[in-house]
Protein backbone atom coordinates (compact mmCIF):
# COMPACT_ATOMS: atom_id res chain seq x y z
CA UNK A 1 0.00 0.00 0.00
CA UNK A 2 2.76 2.39 0.95
CA UNK A 3 4.43 1.76 -2.34
CA UNK A 4 1.29 2.55 -4.24
CA UNK A 5 0.88 5.73 -2.28
CA UNK A 6 4.34 6.89 -3.04
CA UNK A 7 3.66 6.10 -6.67
CA UNK A 8 0.78 8.52 -6.54
CA UNK A 9 3.11 11.06 -5.02
CA UNK A 10 5.50 10.72 -7.87
CA UNK A 11 2.74 11.33 -10.35
CA UNK A 12 1.59 14.35 -8.46
CA UNK A 13 4.90 16.03 -8.32
CA UNK A 14 6.27 14.95 -11.65
CA UNK A 15 4.24 14.09 -14.64
CA UNK A 16 7.29 14.08 -16.77
CA UNK A 17 10.28 16.15 -17.68
CA UNK A 18 10.47 18.76 -20.39
CA UNK A 19 11.95 17.29 -23.54
CA UNK A 20 14.20 19.16 -25.89
CA UNK A 21 11.32 19.27 -28.34
CA UNK A 22 8.82 20.65 -25.77
CA UNK A 23 11.20 23.43 -24.93
CA UNK A 24 12.06 24.28 -28.53
CA UNK A 25 8.42 24.52 -29.55
CA UNK A 26 7.53 26.80 -26.65
CA UNK A 27 10.60 28.93 -27.04
CA UNK A 28 9.71 29.68 -30.63
CA UNK A 29 6.69 31.54 -29.31
CA UNK A 30 8.66 33.17 -26.56
CA UNK A 31 11.15 34.39 -29.12
CA UNK A 32 8.39 36.11 -31.08
CA UNK A 33 7.09 37.69 -27.89
CA UNK A 34 10.51 39.04 -27.00
CA UNK A 35 11.05 40.51 -30.43
CA UNK A 36 7.59 42.04 -30.40
CA UNK A 37 8.52 43.63 -27.09
CA UNK A 38 11.49 45.20 -28.86
CA UNK A 39 14.14 43.11 -27.25
CA UNK A 40 17.10 43.30 -29.59
CA UNK A 41 17.70 40.28 -31.77
CA UNK A 42 21.11 39.21 -30.45
CA UNK A 43 19.88 39.56 -26.87
CA UNK A 44 16.71 37.59 -27.58
CA UNK A 45 18.76 34.91 -29.27
CA UNK A 46 21.21 34.57 -26.40
CA UNK A 47 18.49 34.61 -23.79
CA UNK A 48 16.57 31.88 -25.57
CA UNK A 49 19.66 29.76 -25.87
CA UNK A 50 20.36 30.01 -22.16
CA UNK A 51 16.77 29.02 -21.39
CA UNK A 52 16.85 26.08 -23.76
CA UNK A 53 19.70 24.57 -21.81
CA UNK A 54 18.20 25.38 -18.46
CA UNK A 55 14.64 24.25 -19.11
CA UNK A 56 15.27 20.90 -20.75
CA UNK A 57 14.76 18.13 -18.25
CA UNK A 58 12.86 20.25 -15.74
CA UNK A 59 9.71 18.75 -14.29
CA UNK A 60 6.27 19.66 -15.60
CA UNK A 61 3.67 20.56 -13.00
CA UNK A 62 0.43 18.57 -13.01
CA UNK A 63 -2.43 20.08 -15.04
CA UNK A 64 -0.02 22.29 -16.92
CA UNK A 65 1.20 21.76 -20.46
CA UNK A 66 4.91 21.63 -21.24
CA UNK A 67 4.54 24.87 -23.16
CA UNK A 68 3.00 26.64 -20.21
CA UNK A 69 5.73 25.30 -17.99
CA UNK A 70 8.38 26.73 -20.30
CA UNK A 71 6.69 30.13 -20.26
CA UNK A 72 6.83 30.11 -16.48
CA UNK A 73 10.51 29.22 -16.54
CA UNK A 74 11.19 32.02 -19.00
CA UNK A 75 9.27 34.45 -16.82
CA UNK A 76 11.22 33.51 -13.71
CA UNK A 77 14.50 33.80 -15.57
CA UNK A 78 13.51 37.21 -16.86
CA UNK A 79 12.67 38.45 -13.39
CA UNK A 80 15.85 36.97 -12.00
CA UNK A 81 17.92 38.50 -14.73
CA UNK A 82 16.31 41.94 -14.61
CA UNK A 83 16.68 42.09 -10.86
CA UNK A 84 20.32 41.05 -10.97
CA UNK A 85 21.99 41.12 -7.63
CA UNK A 86 21.29 44.76 -7.13
CA UNK A 87 20.26 44.85 -3.50
CA UNK A 88 19.15 48.45 -3.44
CA UNK A 89 17.27 49.16 -6.62
CA UNK A 90 15.60 52.51 -6.45
CA UNK A 91 18.32 54.00 -4.27
CA UNK A 92 21.03 56.42 -5.31
CA UNK A 93 24.45 56.73 -3.72
CA UNK A 94 24.30 60.09 -2.06
CA UNK A 95 26.84 59.77 0.72
CA UNK A 96 29.70 62.28 1.15
CA UNK A 97 27.85 65.54 0.49
CA UNK A 98 27.61 67.26 -1.81
CA UNK A 99 27.10 64.09 -3.88
CA UNK A 100 27.11 64.73 -7.62
CA UNK A 101 24.63 62.88 -9.80
CA UNK A 102 25.20 63.04 -13.53
CA UNK A 103 22.22 62.61 -15.85
CA UNK A 104 23.03 61.51 -19.39
CA UNK A 105 21.15 60.32 -22.44
CA UNK A 106 19.87 61.27 -25.85
CA UNK A 107 17.81 64.38 -26.50
CA UNK A 108 14.17 63.93 -25.66
CA UNK A 109 14.76 60.79 -23.62
CA UNK A 110 13.42 62.52 -20.53
CA UNK A 111 16.63 63.65 -18.80
CA UNK A 112 15.37 66.99 -17.60
CA UNK A 113 12.06 65.59 -16.43
CA UNK A 114 13.75 62.65 -14.68
CA UNK A 115 16.31 64.95 -13.07
CA UNK A 116 13.50 66.92 -11.46
CA UNK A 117 11.55 63.78 -10.53
CA UNK A 118 14.60 62.32 -8.82
CA UNK A 119 15.33 65.62 -7.08
CA UNK A 120 11.79 65.63 -5.73
CA UNK A 121 12.18 62.06 -4.54
CA UNK A 122 15.50 62.81 -2.85
CA UNK A 123 13.99 65.82 -1.17
CA UNK A 124 10.81 64.14 0.03
CA UNK A 125 11.85 60.55 0.61
CA UNK A 126 15.47 60.98 1.62
CA UNK A 127 15.06 64.44 3.19
CA UNK A 128 17.99 65.76 1.19
CA UNK A 129 18.81 69.30 0.21
CA UNK A 130 19.18 69.18 -3.55
CA UNK A 131 20.56 71.57 -6.13
CA UNK A 132 19.87 71.08 -9.84
CA UNK A 133 21.90 72.53 -12.68
CA UNK A 134 21.17 72.45 -16.40
CA UNK A 135 24.22 71.99 -18.58
CA UNK A 136 22.22 72.13 -21.78
CA UNK A 137 23.86 75.08 -23.45
CA UNK A 138 22.51 74.12 -26.86
CA UNK A 139 18.96 74.95 -26.05
CA UNK A 140 18.39 77.93 -23.74
CA UNK A 141 14.82 76.76 -23.30
CA UNK A 142 16.14 73.61 -21.67
CA UNK A 143 17.68 75.64 -18.85
CA UNK A 144 14.42 77.49 -18.34
CA UNK A 145 12.58 74.19 -18.32
CA UNK A 146 14.64 72.89 -15.39
CA UNK A 147 14.22 76.18 -13.50
CA UNK A 148 10.46 75.98 -13.92
CA UNK A 149 10.35 72.39 -12.72
CA UNK A 150 12.54 73.36 -9.77
CA UNK A 151 10.04 76.03 -8.85
CA UNK A 152 7.21 73.51 -9.03
CA UNK A 153 8.83 70.98 -6.75
CA UNK A 154 10.58 73.43 -4.46
CA UNK A 155 14.12 72.44 -5.39
CA UNK A 156 16.82 75.04 -6.03
CA UNK A 157 18.39 75.42 -9.44
CA UNK A 158 21.73 76.95 -10.22
CA UNK A 159 21.29 80.50 -11.56
CA UNK A 160 21.70 80.65 -15.32
CA UNK A 161 24.68 82.57 -16.70
CA UNK A 162 24.51 83.11 -20.44
CA UNK A 163 27.47 82.01 -22.53
CA UNK A 164 28.93 79.64 -19.98
CA UNK A 165 29.99 76.18 -21.21
CA UNK A 166 28.98 72.86 -19.70
CA UNK A 167 32.21 72.26 -17.81
CA UNK A 168 32.12 75.75 -16.30
CA UNK A 169 28.53 75.18 -15.18
CA UNK A 170 29.48 71.87 -13.60
CA UNK A 171 32.28 73.56 -11.67
CA UNK A 172 30.00 76.33 -10.52
CA UNK A 173 27.38 73.80 -9.44
CA UNK A 174 29.93 71.97 -7.35
CA UNK A 175 31.06 75.22 -5.73
CA UNK A 176 27.54 76.34 -5.05
CA UNK A 177 26.58 72.94 -3.66
CA UNK A 178 29.54 73.01 -1.27
CA UNK A 179 29.01 76.57 -0.14
CA UNK A 180 25.26 76.20 0.13
CA UNK A 181 25.44 73.03 2.21
CA UNK A 182 23.59 70.86 -0.30
CA UNK A 183 23.51 67.09 0.13
CA UNK A 184 23.21 66.37 -3.57
CA UNK A 185 23.69 68.26 -6.79
CA UNK A 186 22.32 67.00 -10.06
CA UNK A 187 23.80 67.77 -13.44
CA UNK A 188 21.31 67.63 -16.29
CA UNK A 189 23.41 67.35 -19.43
CA UNK A 190 22.55 68.16 -23.02
CA UNK A 191 21.56 65.39 -25.38
CA UNK A 192 21.74 64.83 -29.11
CA UNK A 193 19.34 63.09 -31.38
CA UNK A 194 21.89 60.35 -31.81
CA UNK A 195 25.23 59.48 -30.34
CA UNK A 196 28.01 61.65 -31.66
CA UNK A 197 31.56 62.36 -30.67
CA UNK A 198 30.97 65.94 -29.68
CA UNK A 199 28.27 64.94 -27.22
CA UNK A 200 30.41 62.21 -25.71
CA UNK A 201 33.44 64.47 -25.39
CA UNK A 202 31.38 67.07 -23.58
CA UNK A 203 29.86 64.57 -21.18
CA UNK A 204 33.29 63.08 -20.54
CA UNK A 205 34.69 66.49 -19.66
CA UNK A 206 31.80 67.13 -17.29
CA UNK A 207 32.25 63.71 -15.70
CA UNK A 208 35.93 64.44 -15.11
CA UNK A 209 35.28 67.65 -13.21
CA UNK A 210 32.27 66.36 -11.31
CA UNK A 211 33.42 62.79 -10.48
CA UNK A 212 29.78 61.74 -10.03
CA UNK A 213 28.61 59.28 -7.38
CA UNK A 214 25.98 58.11 -9.84
CA UNK A 215 25.79 58.43 -13.58
CA UNK A 216 22.24 57.72 -14.61
CA UNK A 217 21.48 56.94 -18.20
CA UNK A 218 17.99 58.07 -19.12
CA UNK A 219 16.45 56.00 -21.90
CA UNK A 220 13.10 56.25 -23.61
CA UNK A 221 11.38 52.94 -22.98
CA UNK A 222 9.71 53.15 -26.35
CA UNK A 223 12.93 53.22 -28.32
CA UNK A 224 13.39 49.48 -28.14
CA UNK A 225 16.19 48.26 -30.31
CA UNK A 226 18.14 51.53 -30.35
CA UNK A 227 18.37 51.48 -26.59
CA UNK A 228 21.04 48.80 -26.76
CA UNK A 229 23.27 50.89 -28.96
CA UNK A 230 22.74 53.95 -26.77
CA UNK A 231 23.41 52.13 -23.53
CA UNK A 232 26.46 50.39 -24.91
CA UNK A 233 27.96 53.65 -26.11
CA UNK A 234 27.30 55.64 -22.97
CA UNK A 235 28.57 52.87 -20.78
CA UNK A 236 31.76 52.46 -22.76
CA UNK A 237 32.65 56.12 -22.93
CA UNK A 238 31.19 57.59 -19.79
CA UNK A 239 30.62 54.60 -17.55
CA UNK A 240 27.06 54.54 -16.27
CA UNK A 241 25.99 53.31 -12.85
CA UNK A 242 22.32 52.79 -13.57
CA UNK A 243 19.44 53.35 -15.94
CA UNK A 244 16.18 55.24 -15.71
CA UNK A 245 13.63 53.95 -18.19
CA UNK A 246 11.07 56.60 -19.17
CA UNK A 247 7.70 56.57 -20.93
CA UNK A 248 6.73 53.26 -19.47
CA UNK A 249 3.23 54.71 -19.13
CA UNK A 250 2.96 54.26 -22.90
CA UNK A 251 2.20 51.03 -24.63
CA UNK A 252 5.81 50.04 -25.16
CA UNK A 253 6.53 46.59 -23.85
CA UNK A 254 9.85 47.51 -22.32
CA UNK A 255 12.14 45.16 -24.19
CA UNK A 256 14.78 47.88 -23.91
CA UNK A 257 15.09 47.04 -20.24
CA UNK A 258 16.19 43.50 -20.98
CA UNK A 259 18.51 44.50 -23.80
CA UNK A 260 20.25 47.19 -21.81
CA UNK A 261 20.67 45.05 -18.77
CA UNK A 262 22.07 42.30 -20.96
CA UNK A 263 24.53 44.48 -22.77
CA UNK A 264 25.78 46.70 -19.94
CA UNK A 265 25.04 44.60 -16.87
CA UNK A 266 23.99 47.85 -15.18
CA UNK A 267 20.84 47.92 -13.07
CA UNK A 268 17.64 49.60 -14.10
CA UNK A 269 16.87 51.73 -11.10
CA UNK A 270 13.85 53.83 -11.98
CA UNK A 271 10.89 53.79 -14.27
CA UNK A 272 9.17 56.92 -15.56
CA UNK A 273 5.41 56.65 -15.83
CA UNK A 274 4.27 60.04 -17.05
CA UNK A 275 5.05 63.71 -17.37
CA UNK A 276 4.04 64.64 -13.84
CA UNK A 277 6.69 65.09 -11.19
CA UNK A 278 5.58 62.15 -9.08
CA UNK A 279 5.33 59.78 -12.04
CA UNK A 280 8.50 57.96 -11.11
CA UNK A 281 8.80 54.55 -9.56
CA UNK A 282 11.62 52.37 -8.49
CA UNK A 283 12.16 49.47 -10.81
CA UNK A 284 10.02 46.36 -10.23
CA UNK A 285 11.48 43.48 -12.23
CA UNK A 286 8.25 41.44 -11.93
CA UNK A 287 6.21 44.10 -13.66
CA UNK A 288 8.60 44.66 -16.52
CA UNK A 289 9.14 40.95 -17.02
CA UNK A 290 5.39 40.48 -17.26
CA UNK A 291 5.18 43.23 -19.79
CA UNK A 292 8.04 42.03 -21.92
CA UNK A 293 6.73 38.51 -22.12
CA UNK A 294 3.08 39.52 -22.33
CA UNK A 295 1.98 36.09 -21.12
CA UNK A 296 0.82 36.97 -17.64
CA UNK A 297 -2.18 34.64 -17.81
CA UNK A 298 -0.04 31.60 -18.40
CA UNK A 299 2.40 32.55 -15.70
CA UNK A 300 -0.31 32.92 -13.08
CA UNK A 301 -1.95 29.70 -14.26
CA UNK A 302 1.24 27.76 -13.67
CA UNK A 303 1.80 29.46 -10.34
CA UNK A 304 -1.69 28.52 -9.30
CA UNK A 305 -1.17 24.90 -10.33
CA UNK A 306 2.08 24.75 -8.41
CA UNK A 307 0.45 26.14 -5.29
CA UNK A 308 -2.41 23.67 -5.55
CA UNK A 309 -0.04 20.78 -5.83
CA UNK A 310 2.06 21.92 -2.94
CA UNK A 311 -1.06 22.24 -0.83
CA UNK A 312 -2.39 18.83 -1.90
CA UNK A 313 0.95 17.26 -1.25
CA UNK A 314 1.29 18.82 2.17
CA UNK A 315 -2.21 17.69 3.07
CA UNK A 316 -1.62 14.12 1.96
CA UNK A 317 1.62 14.02 3.85
CA UNK A 318 0.02 15.36 7.00
CA UNK A 319 -2.66 12.69 6.78
CA UNK A 320 -0.08 9.97 6.51
CA UNK A 321 2.06 11.40 9.25
CA UNK A 322 -0.89 11.48 11.61
CA UNK A 323 -1.36 7.78 11.02
CA UNK A 324 2.24 7.31 11.97
CA UNK A 325 3.35 6.59 8.45
CA UNK A 326 6.72 8.10 7.88
CA UNK A 327 9.03 6.16 5.63
CA UNK A 328 12.26 6.95 3.86
CA UNK A 329 10.44 8.61 0.96
CA UNK A 330 8.94 11.02 3.45
CA UNK A 331 12.26 11.60 5.09
CA UNK A 332 13.80 12.24 1.71
CA UNK A 333 11.28 14.89 0.81
CA UNK A 334 11.73 16.49 4.23
CA UNK A 335 15.46 16.56 3.69
CA UNK A 336 15.04 18.08 0.26
CA UNK A 337 12.74 20.66 1.75
CA UNK A 338 15.41 21.45 4.31
CA UNK A 339 17.95 21.92 1.58
CA UNK A 340 15.68 24.42 -0.07
CA UNK A 341 14.84 26.32 3.07
CA UNK A 342 18.17 26.33 4.79
CA UNK A 343 18.23 23.78 7.55
CA UNK A 344 16.08 22.18 10.16
CA UNK A 345 14.90 25.43 11.65
CA UNK A 346 13.30 26.42 8.39
CA UNK A 347 11.22 23.27 8.06
CA UNK A 348 10.28 22.92 11.68
CA UNK A 349 9.32 26.55 11.86
CA UNK A 350 6.78 25.95 9.14
CA UNK A 351 4.89 23.24 10.94
CA UNK A 352 2.75 24.05 13.93
CA UNK A 353 4.03 22.56 17.14
CA UNK A 354 7.26 21.40 15.59
CA UNK A 355 9.62 24.04 16.77
CA UNK A 356 9.75 22.72 20.29
CA UNK A 357 10.11 19.15 19.25
CA UNK A 358 12.90 19.81 16.84
CA UNK A 359 15.39 19.71 19.67
CA UNK A 360 14.43 16.13 20.46
CA UNK A 361 15.71 14.82 17.18
CA UNK A 362 19.27 13.73 17.34
CA UNK A 363 21.32 16.59 16.12
CA UNK A 364 22.95 15.07 13.12
CA UNK A 365 24.44 18.35 12.00
CA UNK A 366 22.03 19.58 9.38
CA UNK A 367 24.35 21.29 7.04
CA UNK A 368 24.03 21.02 3.33
CA UNK A 369 26.77 18.45 2.99
CA UNK A 370 25.21 16.23 5.61
CA UNK A 371 21.81 16.42 3.97
CA UNK A 372 23.33 15.45 0.65
CA UNK A 373 24.97 12.40 2.23
CA UNK A 374 21.69 11.37 3.84
CA UNK A 375 19.82 11.70 0.59
CA UNK A 376 22.51 9.61 -1.10
CA UNK A 377 21.89 6.84 1.43
CA UNK A 378 18.17 6.89 0.76
CA UNK A 379 18.78 6.82 -2.98
CA UNK A 380 20.91 3.74 -2.52
CA UNK A 381 17.91 1.84 -1.07
CA UNK A 382 15.47 -0.16 -3.12
CA UNK A 383 11.93 1.04 -3.53
CA UNK A 384 10.73 -1.55 -1.05
CA UNK A 385 13.33 -0.60 1.52
CA UNK A 386 12.42 3.06 1.28
CA UNK A 387 8.77 2.35 1.84
CA UNK A 388 9.45 -0.15 4.66
CA UNK A 389 12.67 0.86 6.40
CA UNK A 390 11.98 -1.63 9.21
CA UNK A 391 13.13 -4.44 6.92
CA UNK A 392 16.67 -3.11 6.90
CA UNK A 393 18.81 -6.00 8.22
CA UNK A 394 22.55 -6.31 8.41
CA UNK A 395 23.12 -7.45 4.83
CA UNK A 396 20.81 -4.82 3.39
CA UNK A 397 22.49 -2.18 5.50
CA UNK A 398 25.91 -3.19 4.25
CA UNK A 399 24.78 -3.04 0.64
CA UNK A 400 23.06 0.33 0.99
CA UNK A 401 25.92 1.97 2.86
CA UNK A 402 28.42 0.68 0.35
CA UNK A 403 26.26 1.92 -2.51
CA UNK A 404 26.35 5.42 -1.09
CA UNK A 405 30.04 5.19 -0.26
CA UNK A 406 29.35 5.51 3.45
CA UNK A 407 29.57 3.47 6.65
CA UNK A 408 26.85 1.34 8.19
CA UNK A 409 27.03 3.64 11.21
CA UNK A 410 25.96 6.52 8.98
CA UNK A 411 23.01 4.50 7.80
CA UNK A 412 22.10 3.59 11.38
CA UNK A 413 21.97 7.22 12.27
CA UNK A 414 19.69 7.87 9.33
CA UNK A 415 17.38 5.03 10.34
CA UNK A 416 17.24 6.38 13.85
CA UNK A 417 16.33 9.78 12.60
CA UNK A 418 13.56 8.34 10.46
CA UNK A 419 12.14 6.48 13.49
CA UNK A 420 12.34 9.53 15.70
CA UNK A 421 10.66 11.73 13.18
CA UNK A 422 7.98 9.09 12.64
CA UNK A 423 7.29 8.97 16.38
CA UNK A 424 7.12 12.69 16.52
CA UNK A 425 4.65 12.85 13.67
CA UNK A 426 2.47 10.25 15.36
CA UNK A 427 2.44 12.24 18.58
CA UNK A 428 1.48 15.30 16.69
CA UNK A 429 -1.36 13.43 15.08
CA UNK A 430 -2.69 12.36 18.47
CA UNK A 431 -2.47 15.84 19.83
CA UNK A 432 -5.05 16.96 17.34
CA UNK A 433 -5.43 20.43 16.03
CA UNK A 434 -5.98 22.23 19.30
CA UNK A 435 -3.02 20.55 20.88
CA UNK A 436 -0.76 21.44 18.06
CA UNK A 437 -1.75 25.01 18.15
CA UNK A 438 -1.16 25.21 21.85
CA UNK A 439 2.22 23.67 21.46
CA UNK A 440 3.07 26.08 18.69
CA UNK A 441 2.23 29.07 20.78
CA UNK A 442 4.42 28.07 23.69
P1 LIG B 1 15.40 65.58 -22.36
O1 LIG B 1 15.58 66.19 -23.68
O2 LIG B 1 16.12 64.27 -22.28
O3 LIG B 1 15.76 66.47 -21.25
O4 LIG B 1 13.86 65.21 -22.22
P2 LIG B 1 12.73 65.95 -21.40
O5 LIG B 1 12.87 65.72 -19.95
O6 LIG B 1 12.66 67.39 -21.82
O7 LIG B 1 11.44 65.16 -21.87
C1 LIG B 1 10.95 65.20 -23.19
C2 LIG B 1 9.45 65.00 -23.16
O8 LIG B 1 9.12 63.72 -22.66
C3 LIG B 1 8.73 65.99 -22.26
O9 LIG B 1 7.55 66.42 -22.88
C4 LIG B 1 8.41 65.18 -21.02
O10 LIG B 1 7.26 65.65 -20.36
C5 LIG B 1 8.20 63.81 -21.59
N1 LIG B 1 8.47 62.75 -20.64
C6 LIG B 1 9.56 62.54 -19.87
N2 LIG B 1 9.46 61.43 -19.13
C7 LIG B 1 8.25 60.87 -19.43
C8 LIG B 1 7.54 59.71 -19.00
O11 LIG B 1 8.01 58.90 -18.17
N3 LIG B 1 6.32 59.49 -19.55
C9 LIG B 1 5.79 60.35 -20.48
N4 LIG B 1 4.57 60.06 -20.95
N5 LIG B 1 6.40 61.45 -20.89
C10 LIG B 1 7.62 61.73 -20.39
MG1 LIG C 1 16.70 68.30 -21.26
Description:
The structure is a single chain. This protein has 442 residues and is an alpha/beta fold. It contains 19 helices and eight strands. An eight-stranded mixed β-sheet has the order 3-2-4-1-5-6-7-8, sandwiched between helices. The longest helix has 34 residues, at 408-441. The protein is elongated and about 95 Å long. Mean pLDDT is 84; it is low at 1-14, 360-364 and 433-442. Guanosine-5'-diphosphate binds at residues 105, 107-113, 191, 218, 246-247, 249, 272-275, 279. Magnesium ion binds next to helix 5.
Task: Offer a few descriptive terms.
single chain, 442 residues, alpha/beta, Four Helix Bundle (Hemerythrin (Met), subunit A), Rossmann fold, 434 Repressor (Amino-terminal Domain), eight-stranded mixed beta sheet, 19 helices, 8 strands, 9% strand, elongated, disordered N terminus, binds guanosine-5'-diphosphate, binds magnesium ion, GTP binding, EC 3.6.5.4, signal recognition particle, hydrolase, SRP54_N_sf
**How would a crystallographer describe the biggest sheet?**
8 strands, mixed
Task: Categorize the overall geometry.
Answer: elongated
Uncertain parts: 1-14, 360-364, 433-442
Radius of gyration: 29 Å
CATH hierarchy: architecture of the largest domain = 3-Layer(aba) Sandwich
What's the CATH class label of the largest domain?
Answer: Alpha Beta
Number of domains: 3
**What is the tally of helical segments?**
19
The rounded distance between the terminal residues' Cα atoms is: 37 Å
**Strand tally:** 8
Roughly what is the average pLDDT, rounded to an integer? Answer: 84
Report the β-strand fraction as a percent range: 5-15%
The percent of residues in helical segments reads 55-70%
Bound molecules: guanosine-5'-diphosphate, magnesium ion
